[in-house]
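2024-03-11 09:14:02 INFO worker-7 job=invfold-0412 stage=load source=structure_tokens
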């Protein structure tokens, strides 16, 4: 059994190899295209994933989202970011 990669505030998340962020014009939504599957993103998921460039840390992404969504509690943003990135890491969509 392989070790689960845990997302932390110091992680540098990015899309894994052969995955790409794509705007689906027919559905008017953002998706992550992966071999043999696609993940449809809502507005919040897109806001998170679009910041995952492999340079910014998870903490940097949370800070940036707090500036973009000043009415949202920081703890809620942090929980959402960590949960989404962990789910995508577990599915092999996100690399650290």
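2024-03-11 09:14:09 INFO worker-7 stage=emit residues=96
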């Amino acid at each position: 059994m392989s070790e689960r990669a845990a997302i932390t505030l110091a992680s540098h998340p990015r899309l894994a190899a052969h995955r790409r962020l794509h705007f689906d014009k027919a559905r008017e939504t953002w998706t992550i295209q992966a071999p043999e599957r696609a993940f449809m993103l809502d507005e919040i998921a897109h806001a998170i994933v679009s910041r995952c460039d492999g340079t910014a840390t998870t903490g940097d992404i949370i800070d940036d989202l707090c500036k973009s969504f000043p009415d949202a509690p920081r703890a809620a943003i942090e929980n959402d970011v960590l949960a989404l990135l962990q789910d995508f890491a577990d599915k092999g969509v996100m690399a650290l």
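2024-03-11 09:14:09 INFO worker-7 stage=report msg="The chain is about 35% helix and 20% strand."
2024-03-11 09:14:10 INFO worker-7 job finished
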